[in-house]
Structure formats: structure tokens, C-alpha cells
Amino acid sequence: MLSVGALLLLLNSCSSTRYLQENQKLLYRQTIVAPRHINKDNLQDLYSQKSARKVFGIPMSLLGWMYHKGENHFKGEKSYSKKRFIERKEKKEKKFDRKIARAKNLRKKDNLEFRKKKKQESLDNKIENGNHFMQWGDQTAVYDSAKLPITLAKMNNYLFIKGYFNGKVEASVKENGRKVSIIYTVSPGKPYFIDTLLLRIPDQKVLTLLTNDLDESNIKEGQQYDQELLTKERERIDNFLKDRGYYDFSRQYIDFQIDTVSKGNHRIILVLEINNPQQSDHHRQFKIDSINFTTDVGVKSIVPGLKRINDPYENITFNYFNYQFSRKILASRVFLKKDSLYSRAQTFRTQRQMANLDVFKFVNVNYDTSGGRFIANIFASPLERYGWSNEAGATVTQGFPGPYISSNLKWRNLFGGLEILELNGRYGFEGVASATETGNFYQSTEAIGGASITFPRFLFPLSKAAVFRYAKYNPRTRLSGSYTYTDRPEYQRSITNVSASFLWDFSQKLRVTFTPTSLNIINSTIDDKFREQLDSLQIYQGNNLINAFKPAFVGSMILSITWNNDYGSTKRHSSLIRGTIESGGTLLNLYTPQIIINQGLEPFQFIRLSLDYRRNTLISKTASFSYRINTGFGLPYSNNQILPYEKNFFSGGSNSVRAWRPRRLGVGSEPPPLSGSPVDNPVGNPEKDGYFNYQFEKPGEILIEGSMEWRQKLFGFVNYALFLDAGNVWANRPGASEAAQFKTNTFLSEFGVGTGFGLRFDFTFLILRLDIGMKVWDPARPSNDRFVLGNTRFLGPYGKNSEPVIYNIGIGYPF
Question: What SS3 state is found at 307?
Fold first, then answer.
């Protein structure tokens, strides 16, 4: 933890008042004193001037230094000055203009125009907002007394819109040298409550619709007055009526009147008014007269002067030069119906489902009201039929980073029914630790090839009515196959997989995947020395790693359900929950395929359950708190009484408990062998052998783990995180040691606990992550010696009482 202190000292080494000019003072702190039921976070957002940014209560003086240095350059004549950015913009524009003028290909011209625009936006941002140092740093928070009344006015207005009509906020300013602190004291008073809700709507049809829908209203009699609820209700009514044919309805027709006098005693009468349009005594409902669908917007006819074909199907007129896409599939994804009332929700659903097909660049829906008719026009521009992408990068798992290349070919509308064929390949290698010798690293090579076809429907006989009925769930069928080959000096291993899956979305948040068939054939060859080690692990420690290298047949049926409530959003609270149920070898109860017998493959039968919950809570615009709970349970019931290796659970690594190396935590409280001791002597000599040997993975049948993480912006694209992880895996199989077994009365003390800190580099298109994990509680040690945080060492030598920190490099957030 000394490094955390050193980091903070570095960030705050400069005086926070250093860059103040004469007669200026630093706005050091702003504090709000208010009753518990008042939301202080909302009030803090109303500050008209920001105080100095802090980390753990300490001003971030380094950010002031960055801004000051950047500002000096920006005002000067050299690089990173405003003058240089303006000159650079002019040169870039002229350079792109020359290239665009020379380009003969329309696609190349469009690409150059796009690149020119992106470069202009980047330079305009620097001209207007300063160079990188200015944007990453913080301008010195200079106290401005003229802005204090503005803040008070905003806060008093906030109290009013929340129903505290007599509320008041006062401020007291305290000065300490050149530092200023402001304390805002909130006296809200007694709130007003809605006693009566009245509807004043002259359009009787609209009045009837809203009266019948009052149960869904955001406004209830007896609740505290809140102007935000009125805004939400205005939006709800607007959406409600637009889903019932009122195409040209507007929120401007909705008004609220407040009567605070008639009832008294802090009770109000709220009147909801919906006015009629000018020169009309009612709001018009629109009914769709016809639907036109143009499927090839932006495509030019090969024959000059040729007009598009008009092709009626299911009350939709399709327009195209050449027939390309299945009318049945497209028509099933159009949720607008001839002679039905206009619905904004169905319009958006149509656009969304068309986008899900992944065959169109864009899909626009607009309505033509001219000539007394109401016509729905759908315009879609097709994507290129073939798409080819390549990627190169580096992989880091357990050892030294290694390069990889991958390629993906996408063939859209394969058979004319909007199917998508994808062919992909990946080849890479990295440096990994030797499994048979200590201290050696060597190259591990992995090659993967795969193919999949996705159909935008369920691949089993359905009537046309059923196809149209289920289309709103975005049904898909995916057939896939892959081959994975791994080559290491100790072994060579291959996995052949074929599977069929059905996917559908009950809503934008709820997705279901059902895989009735997933078949894997696994083959391996291993050298004699490695086989001896695997045998010793199984005999002396109950580690079933050897099963990963037996010829095996794994067939399973999988049901996965995912609820995603905007998880990953940086603008609102979000959460995700994913549950999976898998039944392996179910069909083997009835029939054993001949290939299993002929090739001597090990069959597996098992039940496997997993549940993963994640939540991200926004604390402020620059900080959030995230946590995760991940569990799993496996029950083998085949003759070998074990799970296939890929179906085991593991703990430890950059997306798990980060104080342990990947897949090295556990099993239970069973200790690993000590470094330097033979595998068949798990006790060893602590004084001689040193620290634990985490050379081998630790598979288990039961998993419980959780993580908490505080994330906050430092500057620019650099964020930091503080985290706490806990978890372990346990055995649920015959032959496992007593220490590895899960027991309800001891499992809590067998959690491996780690903590640490990390940096996240947010480059928009990817997030590069570095986490430093340190053990807090090690269940592999004796029960009276498990607290090991004090043993943490950033530098060797390591031994029994000196634990190394674990460095984790990853892409994206850990959860």
C-alpha cells in the first residue's frame, strides 16, 4: 500500500495555490448541509463554479500543473499553440482537397471526405478547447464571488420544483489564507402534496383514452409534488397518444396548472390540460393507407432510365431494381399494418428489427400526409454483400505477450433469405511457463478456424402466420462449426465443435439462447514427462487436470438467459444478470453414437449451472462503483464421476480474483506444492523451497466469487480503480481431498481475498487495463496464518513470508 501513497504524493506534490494570480483565491471546498431526504448529489450538480478536484480529499495539484503548462504552450508560437493548430488545419484541408480532386473512384472520394471531416473535428476541438494538456488538466479553481448568488438561485429553484415552495438555501463563506470554503445550508421547509388531480381535456376521445389509462400515470393523488414527474408525465402522454394514431400530436398541447390556495395545509390541486390544435375542435387520428418499401436506396440501375419494379406482397409494395431479399422475411419485420392506426412504437420497432438483420446500412421510415392520404415509406440502403476484416494484436494470459492475427469474411444474404455466412480464422503464439521445468518459457501456438451461418428465422417448419407472429422477437438460428489446435512442447491438443442454436429477444433487455445440440470431440497427445506430472497431481492432490488430455466426447444441451439493463452505460445506473443451465450427455442415456465406441472417446454426463450478476452505480460524472457476484455448480453423473475439463470452474486472473494468477486459486483450502518441491510432496520444506508453486491450473465443480471496484477519472483518457476481490472453487467429486471439498460450515473462511489498484486507458475504441493485485487472505495457508497482506512485495526475492504482487493486463473492464 506504500505505492498507493507514493502515487498520491506524486499527483499532489505541487501547491494547490501555486498558479493563482495576485488577489485571486482558490475555491478549495464546497459543502452542503441538508436533511437526509434532500438529494445532495443533485444540488452539487448546480454549482456555478467548481472547486478543486480531489482524490481521497487531497486536491489534484498535478492537474493544475498540466493545465498551466498546456496553456503556456497554447498562447505561444511553437508546437501545441492555437496558432499552430490553425495552420495545421489549413494544411490538412488543402492536402485532402488535392487528394479528393485526384480520386476517380466514388468510394475513395467518400473515404477521403470522411477522413477530412474527422481531422477537422479533431483540430477544431484543440483550437476551441486547448491542447491535450489543457483538456486533461484542470484550470485552477479561482473563487468568483459573483457566481455565488447564481448557485443559490439554482438551489432555491431546485427546492421549488421538488415541492418545497417555501424552502431556502443560505451560504457561508470561510477564508483560510488564499483558500476559500463555502458551506450551503438547506432549509427545505414542509413540502406540498397533490391532493386532487383534475383532467381538463375538451377532446372527448383523448379524454376517454387518458382516463382509462390513469393507472399508468406518473402522477398520483397523495404524492409529493415534483416538477420532474410532470415532465415525465408529459413525455408519457405524448408517447401514449402517438402510439394510438395521433401522428402530429405535440407536447406543447400539454399544460399543468397548480392551485395551492383552495385546499390549504400544503395541499394542491393539479390540473392537467390538453388543448386542441388551433382552428380545430379535436386532435386527428391517422390511419395508414398504404406501405411502400424501397430495398435498394443508393443503388444505381445498370440499365440507364430503368425504373424500379413495384412488387406487392402482404399489403406492402416492395420497390427494387433487382430482386435480392426475401419478401417474406422483410414483411415479417414490418410491424406497420395497412388500415391500422399510426404507432410510433411500431415504427421504431420496424427500424430496430431491420437493423438487426445486418444487411442494411440504414433504414428510415417516414410518412407522407400530402393529398389527404397517410402513406408509410420505408427506405433501406443495403450493405456490401461481402465484408472482410483483419486484425492484429497481442495476447496475454499467463506468460509473455505474443502476437496474433485474425481474419473474418462475412457473406450477407447467402441464399437470398437474408442469411449471413461468416468464416473466421485466428493464428497466434505467446510465451508461457514450462509445465515440466522450473523457470523456463517457450512458445505456445494456437490456430482456430470456424464457420457459421445465421438464419433470420427459426429453422423448423412454421406457418406463415407463426413466422409473422414470432418476428417481433428477432428469431435467429445459428449453425456453426470450429476447429481449435494448440501446440506446446508438452502436448498437442485439438477440439472439433459443431452446434446449432436458437436465439430470440423477448425485449431489448431480455435475450434467450437455446442450444439443443453442441458436440465436441477432443483429442490430445502428451509427452511422457508431462504425463507423469499429471498422474502425480491426480494421485496426491486429486487434481483432475489429466482429464483435459484424454480423448473425449462432450455433447450438451444449453439454455442461457441474459437480462441486460443498459450494462456498460456511462450515463446511468446499469446492471446485467446472466443464467445458464447445461445438461451434458443427455442423449447418452438413450443412445451411444458408434463414433464414441470406435474411437475410444470418454463420454461425459453432467448438469452445470451458472449465475452471473453485475451492477454499475454512478456516483458522479467522473466516478462509479461497480460490483459482481459470480457463481457456478457442476454435478457429474457419468461413470467417470468428473466434469469435462472445459466445463470446470476456475478462479483467479484478470477477470476474477486478481491477486492470483489465472486459474490458480483453490481448490478450497488445499495448498499447492511449494516451489522447488516434488509434486508428490505437497508439504515440502518452507524454509528451503520458498513460496507456493502455482504452476498448474486448479479446476473445481463449485464456484463462488465476487468483486467490488471504485472507478474514477484521473485526467484525459486515464482513469484509476481501487478493487477488492474474493472467491474460490471447491471440489464436488469422489477422490478429492478433505481440504478441497465444499462444506457449509467452513467455506466462508476459505475465500481467497485480494485487493489492489489499477489504471484504465480509455482510447474510446478500446480500454487498456493494468491492475496490480495483492493477497489479503490466502486459504491455502494454515488457518491461523491466512492474513498475508503484510507479506506483499513489489520486488523479489520471494519466499514463505514475502508474496509477490500480481500484474494483470487486459482489454476492457474486468466486469
Answer: coil
